[in-house]
Amino acid sequence: MKIVFHGANAQTFMPEFESLLEQTHDIAFVPDQLESAADVNLYQSADVVIGIRYDAELPQLNAQLYQLPSAGYDKVDLTALPQTCAAANVFGHETAIAEYIMMALLSRHVPLFEADSQLREGNWHYWAGKPTGLRTELGSETIGIIGHGHIGKELAAKAKAFGMRVMMANRSPMDVQYDKNFTLENLAQMAGEVDILVNALPLATGTDGLINAQIFSAMRSTGVFVNVGRGAVADETDLFNALKTRTIESAIIDTWYQYPSSENKNPEPSALPFAELDNVLMTPHMSGWTKGTIARRQQQMADNINRLVRGESIFNALK
After folding, report:
1. pLDDT bucket at 268, cuts 50 / 70 / 90
2. Average pLDDT, rounded, for the chain
C-alpha cells in the first residue's frame, strides 16, 4: 500500500512510523500546499492519506482510508471523501491535557516560583507559621466539565484524586454518576454551582458558541473558565467581555480563534486583544502536545492500517 502524510502536522508522526506496521508499505510526504504535479500525483495515488484537512478544493482522493492524526476533524469535509474511502480519527491526548489543566489550576494555589524568588532575596513570606503565607487548596474547589469524552473522563479522575467535587455536563446520558450530572440544556445551572468551568467539547454541530454570555453570567464572579476543547465552542466576543468586565475572575485558554497559516505564520490568537487582559493565561494550543501523545496516536494509526490490510474494521470510524 502507498501511505502519504499530508502537511506539517501529519509529518510530525512520520519518524519510526514504519516500524509499527506489520507489512512493508511505501511511505511518502507531501506539503500542505500541493503545488507540484509530483505532489498531486502522490496524493491522488495514495491508498491511505494521513492529514488534518480535506475539502473539495483539494485534489480528489482515491484512497481507501483518510486517517487523521488528531481527535478533531472539523477541517475535514467527510461528505467530500469518496464513498469507498473510510475515515477515522485518534485520541491519546487526554492524559497530557488533563495534566496541563491540573498544572494550570494548581499554580493558582501553590506559588512555587514566587516563593523561590522571594526566598533567594531573603524574603520568608510563605514560611509556615506566618499568617502572611497561608494558601488555598485546589481540593476545596468544585470543577464542572463540559464533555464526557476522553478528556472529560481523564480530567474527572485526576480532579477526584485531588479531592475536588466533580460535576459533568454532556449531551447524551453518562455511564458514571459524578457529584452532579447535567445535560447541555442545563449548562447554565452547572456553571453557577462550580468554581472552575472546563470546556472539553470539540467543534461540531450544536457546539459552536455553546458557551456564551448567558453561561458566563451564570458563573460565580470568582469563577475560572478553561478552554481545551475548540476555541469557537466559547463565543469569542462574550468570553472577552466576561473577562474584561470581571464577570468571571479569570480564564485559562489553550484553544483559539486564529491560528498560524502559510499566509500568516504568527497571527494574534484572536481578533480581540486578549493579550491586554491581566486575568487570562494564554498558551498556544499546547495542552495535548507531548511525546506520549505522539506515540499513542502513532500506534492507533498504525493499528488502523494493519487492520485495513487484514480486511478488518477500523477503530474510531467517522463514516
Report:
1. very high
2. 97
Q: What is the pTM of this model?
A: 0.93
Read off the C-alpha cell for 66: 483518510
At residue 261, the pLDDT reads 87
Give CATH 3.40.50.720 domain extents, the chain: 2-91+291-310, 94-282
Is pLDDT of 284 > 90? yes
Q: Is the CB of residue 204 less than 8 Å from the CB of residue 180?
A: no
- Which class would CATH give 2-91+291-310? alpha beta
* pLDDT-derived band at 68, boundaries 50, 70, 90: very high
User: Which H, E and C letters describe the chain, residue by residue?
Assistant: CEEEEECHHHHCCCCCHHHHCCCCCEEEEECCCCCCHHHHHHHHCCCEEECCCECCCCCCCCCCEEECCCCCCCCECHHHCCCCCEEECCCCCHHHHHHHHHHHHHCCCCCHHHHHHHHHCCCCCCCCCCHHHCCCCHHHCEEEEECCCHHHHHHHHHHHHCCCEEEEEECCCCCCCCCEEEEHHHHHHHHCCCCEEEECCCCCCCCCCCECHHHHHHCCCCCEEEECCCHHHECHHHHHHHHHCCCCCEEEECCCCCCCCCCCCCCCCCCCCHHHCCCEEECCCCCCCCHHHHHHHHHHHHHHHHHHHHCCCCCCECC
Mean pLDDT confidence for 253-270: 95
- Which homologous superfamily is 94-282 in? NAD(P)-binding Rossmann-like Domain (3.40.50.720)
Backbone dihedral angles phi then psi of residue 224, each to the nearest 5 degrees = -120, 130
Residue 66 has pLDDT above 90, yes or no: yes
- Give per-residue pLDDT as tens, 221-239: 999 999 999 999 999 999 9
